[in-house]
Amino acid sequence: MSGYDVRAALESESAQIKDLIHLVGINPTGLDWRRFVVAVNDLGEVVGCGQVKPHGKEILELASIATHPDHRGQGVARKVIEALLRTTPRPLYLMCISNNGPMYEKFGFKSVAHEETPRYFQRIQKLFNVANVIHGVGELLVMKLE
Question: What is the reported pTM?
Answer without folding.
Answer: 0.91
